[in-house]
Write a structure and sequence with these properties.
CATH class: Mainly Alpha
Number of strands: 0
CATH superfamily: MFS general substrate transporter like domains
Radius of gyration: 21 Å
Order of helices and strands: HHHHHHHHHHHHHHHHH
Number of domains: 1
CATH topology: Growth Hormone, Chain: A
Helix content: over 70%
Number of helices: 17
Length: 452
């Protein structure tokens, strides 16, 4: 068996250089994510003439396909035995696929129809799946320390927001005629994504240790699924994240139309996104000490509460001169709470993986993180598709005047249902059983099993 570079799992510390190299590829990946749900579909609707119903169907198809490939990627990564470890080869392969696909995906035009958008969406989703699933699982292998996992997760979340900032900074460059996001802007961003992938992925593969992974027999799919079926903390976490992500998908799919067709401030989308993303980078470092006091599940509950409050307030924002400053303030608050959800999500799943390893004796980290990604993508797909269909059924027209019944349907999908879903997420977060004390017991027993 090849020798591996190890992390000091007892101290649970990863030096800052390898930690930053670990999260670096997440920046270009989230430059791809940034426009995926709302901006690109809106651009394809406007410049390629694709209907809302067709866009809703494409979102459902691609995200469901993405959800199917997530568990497959996790299963294959867990079974991989290579000199570079089980995670790095898949991340490199995903980077290559994402590099090629994003070039075409970011170029909506009159001659790009539904099939073009569908096929290149699938290509991009395959690429980022092969990168994200092994990358997420890697976190559980880099440290077993409760708080160190929160620190690494906060770095990863900061990288997510840096990706958002870079994407939404692009329209502000002086060689673009307007600050609105156009196909010319997304075409430029595609080159930035390609360059960052080419640089960051090799550095990650070279600088970051493979982590500590106890080599057991290759896990079988039946055993993995049986372990998940018997994993109560996973069930609660699954329900909590599914409800929250369906809500996020419903809001995200209609956000562009809320800013453009309702508030009339499409030219301010970039500024709102930049402000909230920059705050997300900062607040990602605020959450680890908070989680050290209230626990990871407490941060998850606080995030759901923040989502409920910001949605309720957003329903009362009127079109007019106050729309932009109000949206800026409300989304700033939302960014802080959403960051808490992102940081706690990755760290909690690492603890769930430890619980499974204690019960089964096998490391199925990538399989669990693949289901975590599946929850996010499936939830966002269902939510995004559902909200577009609801708005369309009520007669909402993104290019025309809307009042009365169409706006009632729009706000039901954009505000009402997401609030109910976040209430469900809050209730489940408060019931999550793996707190600091219980995880310490699990970590101690795993260490004894490994002879430490």
């Amino acid at each position: 068996m090849p020798t591996r570079q190890k992390v000091d799992m007892a101290k649970g510390q990863l030096r800052i250089g390898p930690a930053l190299a670990y999260v670096a590829p997440i920046v270009p990946v989230w430059m791809l994510h940034a426009p995926a749900l709302s901006v690109l579909p809106a651009l394809y609707a406007k410049h390629a003439g694709i209907s809302l119903s067709a866009l809703g169907a494409i979102l459902l198809i691609t995200r469901l396909f993405d959800g199917i490939t997530d568990p497959l990627a996790g299963y294959l990564s867990d079974r991989t035995r290579s000199r570079l470890g089980p995670r790095k080869p898949w991340i490199v392969a995903g980077g290559i696929i994402a590099t090629i696909s994003c070039y075409f995906w970011f170029r909506p035009a009159a001659d790009t129809g539904p099939l073009y958008f569908l096929l290149w969406s699938i290509g991009v989703y395959i690429g980022w799946t092969l990168m994200e699933i092994p990358h997420s699982a890697w976190l559980a292998e880099l440290t077993q320390d409760y708080d160190e996992r929160s620190r690494l997760s906060s770095y990863r979340t900061a990288a997510v927001y840096v990706g958002y900032v870079l994407f939404f900074c692009a329209p502000l460059l002086p060689f673009f005629a307007t600050t609105e996001i156009t196909p010319e802007v997304t075409s430029f961003v595609s080159w930035a994504v390609i360059a960052l992938l080419i640089v960051s992925v090799p550095i990650m593969a070279w600088k970051v240790p493979s982590g500590e992974l106890v080599m057991t027999d290759r896990p079988r799919l039946k055993e993995i699924l049986l372990g998940m079926w018997r994993n109560r903390p996973f069930h609660i976490f699954f329900g909590c994240m599914l409800a929250g992500n369906v809500a996020s998908g419903m809001v995200g799919a209609l956000y562009f139309f809320f800013m453009d067709a309702y508030l009339g401030i499409a030219d301010k989308i970039v500024f709102v996104a930049l402000g909230t993303s920059a705050l997300g980078v900062v607040s990602s470092q605020f959450w680890p000490p908070v989680m050290a006091r209230i626990g990871k599940h407490g941060a998850l509950a606080a995030s759901a509460t923040g989502a409920i409050l910001t949605l309720a307030i957003m329903a009362f924002i009127p079109p007019g001169p106050l729309a932009f400053p109000l949206m800026l303030v409300i989304f700033a608050c939302s960014s802080v709470t959403a960051t808490g959800q992102m940081v706690s999500n990755m760290a909690i799943m690492a603890d769930v993986v430890d619980y499974d390893e204690l019960r089964t004796g096998k490391n199925n980290a990538a399989s669990y993180y693949s289901f975590n990604a599946f929850i996010a993508k499936f939830g966002v797909a269902i939510g995004g598709g559902l909200s577009l269909v609801i708005a369309g059924l009520f007669g909402f027209d993104p290019n025309g005047h809307n009042a009365g019944w169409p706006m009632a349907g729009f706000f039901t999908a954009f505000i009402g249902v997401p609030i109910l879903l976040n209430l469900s997420s809050l209730w489940l977060a408060l019931r999550f059983p793996l707190n600091r004390r219980r995880h310490a017991i699990i970590a101690h027993r795993l260490a004894r099993r490994k002879g430490k």
